[in-house]
Structure formats: structure tokens, C-alpha cells
Amino acid sequence: MDSMLAVVKLEAERLELREFPQPEPGLDGAVLKVEAAGMCGAYGSFKSARPGRSPGLQGHENAGTIVAASKIFQDRHGVTEGDLVAVEEYVPCYHCEYCRVGDYRNCFATDRRNNGGAASRIPGGFSQYIYLPPNVVLHKLPSTVSPSEAALALPIGNGVSWACSAGEVGPGKTVVIQGPGSKGLGATLASKIYGASNIIVTGLSRDKTRLEAAKKLGADYTLDVEKQDFVSTIMEITNGRGADAVVDCTTGKSDRVFHQAFEVVKRRAGVIVTQQYNELSSFPMKLLADRFVTLRVCRGHSYTSVAMALEWIASGKYPLAELITHHYPLARTDAACLASGGEGEGADAAWVMVNPWLDGGTS
Fold it and tell me: What pTM did the predictor assign?
């Protein structure tokens, strides 16, 4: 049996490159040669003490070429060996009410927050090959798209789901996007394409490159919250009205970020889209009630939002390739994780990719 290389997390901030048997397609599966893996959640996982999956460390924003596929798999998904595909992380049941409408993130099989943590997901893509089961969720792509661009499908799809579906961003709307990371940049592009009139992206001083990237993707204003006051600056930009939607794309799960959203959302009919917080020191119930705010918690993406993101990527209309500023080989996944969080030698990165077949350092 042939072997492959994959990254394994041993403990906080300690990764190891190991050799594993190369997967085989079996009777009904396929094998993906991973050519690009995005970094969603990789920084937090790298820093935490929680063990990673083996092989791989998250790395669920994957794109690559199908190098082996059973006839059952090819017939089911309409693909052949040699096709470039983007892969969603979910491995759904395909028969529940959520799967029927393409909302695989809410399938009980994939919902690790509500099913005891036994999520059915694709192995981490920080690996040269991964096995694709017959019930994988994938998207076939034209050869004009690079694997690294294809791997942006999930963060941009998240942007569609968070900002435009949950946040109701559209023509005439003002949106504040908290955090210019991978998902925040995806939300910026989605908001622009959906016709938002005013897009404000906020970040830290170390996010300078990402805030510049947000401008290129359509942000009207960028705000360094360490140099400018979050609330007063946004209220000044909006002439005291506030934002129609505030979308929390930060990674630190800070109480302050959560509370500030309520201070800048408009009075009546404003929407705040937030994420999972473990515990809050207090909940701004009075502001929520006084301003008649709609609070929505969101995670992940729908099939439709990812398909839409891939249409935008394939169009070539947007400067996505130039904003993938840092590429790392498997042996330097630790540096890629740090770069994705704005630390280390790649602190000036916008979007970061691990390319498992890249030799040497960054490019």
C-alpha cells in the first residue's frame, strides 16, 4: 500500500508530520488529492489544548483532484477521476428534513454540538490525500479555477449565510462586519455582491493587511478598533442611525465584541448575527428590548451558499487569487496556523493556504 504525509496535532502549538497509508476508494467511495486547505478555525485549534483529529488538524476548507473513484461514487456525484472539486466538511445522512433542503450543518449526524460531539465529518485536509465517503458533499469546478481559489468556497459561503441570509443584508442596508478574518472577508464580498450600500469592517491593528483586503472586496469603511472608538466612529459614519446588521466574525469570543454590537445596531428592525459564546458576564437584554433587535446565532453554511460562492469564484470578477497572500507546505502547517491568526512571520497575511504538495517555504 502506498503512503502519504499528514499533519497530526500532539498538543497545544505542537504539530508533527507523519506518514500514513494512502486511502483507497473501496466499493463506493473516492480519494481526493488535496491541493489546497484553508485555515478556518486552525489558529484557535493550534493554540488550544484540545487534541486534533488524526490524520489532519481541522483543515476543512479543502479542494483538490479526484484521483480514484468507484463507479458508484462517480454515478452518484456526476464526477470522474481527474475532476477538480471543492469539498464541504459535512458527512450528512441525506434523508432528514434538513438534508432534504441542503442544510447539512443541521443534520443530527453532523451537529456535534447537539449529538454528544460525535460529528460525522471529512478528515482534516492538512494531508496529501483524504478519503471521500459516498455521502460526502462536494462541488465540481471548471479547470479555470485554481485549487486555492476553490478552497475559498466555504468562507465565502459562510459570508452568504451569515451576512446575507441571517443578517438580511441587501440594497440600501448598512452592515458592520466584526473581524476581517477568512469568514469576515467572505461576508464582505457577499455583502457587496448582494448590494449593501454601506459596508464597515472592523479589526485590530495587526489586521492591517486584512482590512486592506476588505477594501478591495468592497468595504466602504475599515476601522482599527485599537486606534478608533468602535461605537462613536460607526455612529458618526451612519449619521447616528446605526447599522441595519452587525455580523460577528471574530474568533476571540469576547464579551466586549458581543455587547458593542448592540450599541451600534439601529433602533427597531436591526439584526445581530452572532456565534457560539460559552458564557457571557452579562446579557444586554435592555438594549435588545429597547431597540427591538433580532438576535440570530449562526454557524457554517448551506449547500446553496457554497454553490453561489463558487459561481463568484469561477467568474474571475473578484481579486481573490491576489488576496491569497501566503502558501505553506505541510511541513510548515504550524507557521500557517500562526499566520492565519495574524502572528509570526506571516502576520501580514490576508488569506492563508496550506498546499500539501508545495515544497520548501512560503510563496
Answer: 0.92
The Cβ of residue 67 has, within 10 Å, a number of other Cβ atoms equal to: 15
Which H or E run includes 150? helix 147-150
How many separate helices (H) and strands (E) can be counted in the chain? 12, 15
**Whole-number Cα distances in Å, 98 to 95, 101, 167:** 8, 6, 20
CA distance 337 to 280: 27
CA distance 178 to 259: 12
Q: How many whole angstroms separate alpha carbon 97 and alpha carbon 100?
A: 5
In tens, the pLDDT along 27-82 reads: 999 999 999 999 887 877 788 766 555 555 567 899 999 999 999 999 999 999 99
Q: Classify domain 3-151+319-354 by CATH number.
A: 3.90.180.10
CATH 3.90.226.10 fits domain 155-297 = no
**If 0-12 CB within 10 Å is exposed, 13-18 middle and 19+ buried, where does residue 153 land?**
buried
Domain ranges of the chain: 3-151+319-354, 155-297
Strand, coil or helix: 93: coil
- Report the chain's terminal Cα–Cα distance, integer Å: 32
Measured CA distances, 308 to 169, 236, 329 (Å): 16, 34, 29
* 204-263 tens-digit pLDDT: 999 999 999 999 999 999 999 999 999 999 999 999 999 999 999 998 778 889 999 999
